[in-house]
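Please review this pair:
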Amino acid sequence: MSRSARSRLAVGALGAIAAVALAGCASTAPAADPAPEDTHDHDHASDSRVAIAYDGGIVVLDGETLETVGEAELDGFLRVNSAGDDAGHVFVTASDGFHLLSTGIDGDVEFTGEVFAATTPGHVTPHAGRTALFDDGTGGFEIFDTDAVGTGSLPTTDAFSSETAHHGVAVELSDGTILSTIGTSESRSGVRLLDAGGTELARNEQCPSVHGEGALKDEVIMFGCQDGILLFADGAFTKLDAPDEFGRSGNAYVTETSPIAVADYNSDPDSEGYLLSKLAFVDTDAQELSIVELPADVRYTWRGVGRDDHDNIVLLSADGTLNVLDETGAIVDSWDVIDPWESPVEWQDAHPGLRVVGDTAYVTDPATDRILAIDLHTGETTAEATLDVVPGEFVVVGGSAH
């Protein structure tokens, strides 16, 4: 179903970018039911897994064939995050906390029994061998060794608190210092730097509605703001102002091999729906922020952007196309992959999603309950599956996925 590139001209070569995606708001879901026994044959399974949330559980697929490996039940609306460890575990957020799921790479698909309690579980942030779990309901967060999970018992954690509860995020850097957001249940204002013991070293409150964290090359950390981007590098904060009075970025799409970050961008505070038509590009070397306007028929949601092994940007559009952009913002390839679709009414509503691992794009299509694996060199579908459930959020783990 490939078609020729829509355009190989720069859509506004306005600077380089890279960003990482941390999705919308905190999840809510009730407690777990026992996971069903996994009776599938693993003899020919690959070492990667696709974990897809649906209303009532998680279905896990082989990352190469997209055959079902197993399922685990958990009631309610669920969100999934890669645990970032070598064994391909997944954190599933529910109303009572973060549940750890084994995806069957080294055994069965099942919940391990490790539940990190949280009032309102929010962001999961693995970085530099350490993972932070943020509780929006209290403002507290726990940090622990990323590879310490999967034993059936909770690992030793370091606990920290925020000044007040808010929808936030924390990340521990390779030198042991910690970045955590500042805010209340009504508003958020910026980021503070803590030492390993939790003592504040510095802060910046020039990032209203701070949301979305990403780690780039040379451990530059970026956060999205309502009016631009906040960078942290070499012990200092730098604010990059958006060109519009309201220029919100809330999700970052980055790689650790590029100084270019990409973020979603909305310049209309009165916009309806969740489809966006612009991307923010951040050159963290030059400390410059620029905006690329996409072609008229290319629109995306926060679920629809990723980065490939070549640091290109991959974008799933509501017109059903999968687009590859280089780091100038030029569309260099475009293929029809699914039928056109409309903006979700609420961000939680099932709608097409994208995950990129290496040179493969995984695309879900809730209208047909399908998932596709697409070769980013050719646009060809290399695997496809029709599910027995409506796919929600999903992650790809194991192999080179983390």
